[in-house]
Specification:
Blueprint lengths: L5 E10 L2 E11 L4 E5 L6 H9 L6 E6 L2 E2 L10 E4 L11 H11 L4 H14 L15 H13 L5 E5 L7 H18 L2 E6 L2 H7 L2 E6 L2 E6 L1 H6 L4 H6 L4 E9 L2 E4 L2 E4 L10 E6 L5 E3 L6 E10 L4 E6 L5 E6 L8 E5 L6 E3 L3
Parallel strand pairs: 3-8, 3-9, 6-7, 7-8
Antiparallel strand pairs: 1-2, 1-4, 4-5, 9-10, 11-12, 11-14, 12-13, 14-20, 15-19, 16-17, 16-19, 17-18
Helix pairs in contact: 2-3, 2-4, 3-4
This protein binds adenosine-5'-diphosphate and magnesium ion.
Adenosine-5'-diphosphate binds next to strand 2 and helix 1.
Amino acid sequence: MKEPIITFKKVKKNYDETVVLNNVSFDIEQGKFYTLLGPSGCGKTTILRLIAGFDEASQGEILLEGKRVNDIPANKRKVNTVFQDYALFPHMNVFENIAFGLRIKKVSQTIIEEKVKEVLKMVQLDGFGNREISEMSGGQRQRVAIARALVNEPEVLLLDEPLSALDLKLRTDMQYELRELQKRLGITFIFVTHDQEEALAMSDEIFVLRKGKIIQSGTPVDIYDEPINRFVADFIGESNIVPGNMIEDNCVEFVGKSFECVDGGMKSNESVEVMIRPEDLSLTTVENGKLQVKVDSQLFRGVHYEIVGHDDDGNEWVVHSTRKAKEGSRVGLSFEPEDIHVMRFN
Ligand code: ADP
Ligand code: MG
């Protein structure tokens, strides 16, 4: 394996008594798109600040390209940050905003002009150099902020919830653009969001955080299909979760029946949580269903109906179906063994 570009080894961060990061360890490979995903306050910004060098770890080691950087100041790290509020200078035009860092480094005017022009092209703002920041839309300001970071030719770009201020349509467009940009440049992106759909759409790898800990890491598909526990299952996508019990390696019991499943690794007799995604359930007749539920309500969501019902044990079941159901009726639910995902409690 290639040497990771960033490594955290048992990093802790606390402010007095408050533990903000608790034994965080990970490796970041060069050239991939990583996302830190988790609810507000779980420590995402803190991790970026430690990578950038704006804050110091209380314990543990941070390595950049294999070298310990705990004591290396921010301006000596080949890392740049795009902040949540973009932090652009309102009294400078686009060109000067981007050129600012290069001027501080005393780069010559000719080179500055060349480099600014180049990054403006990268973010598709060719010819916008003379515009004032106040004349730029939200999406354009976003791109100026990215251009300003890219002009320093960082090896790692840190992006702290850069899309959260944009409206839905623009946000979706920018998701594609950022992903394309990352692929084109081949530099490492570490992107922070609390939006699971954004994380799934954009990332090579996702780290799911909760209360200062990484509780699962993996590709979007791994995390969606095989969440490690109820928190991840609920946080990423919609899920039906009911209590169950392992009978054997490939057999699990829930709602009073046993079902074939393909999830291994659990002991027989172990109490588990059983998850099935709403889109993996389909409506059928009561006789043909593996489970039977009474339909409580149904909403038309455009791409599907969202049908909510309950089984005889009182568990709620959400089904995404292209077929309608009748409120108050009893229906059967069918699903395949591979749609059953078994999780340990916690
Ligand atoms: P996120 O970006 O995931 O929303 P942060 O990394 O900003 O979370 O913060 C994680 C926790 O650390 C929060 O509970 C926050 O209140 C706390 N925190 C962050 N900075 C400081 C600070 N300078 N002093 C005390 N607590 C802080
Ligand atoms: Mg934050």
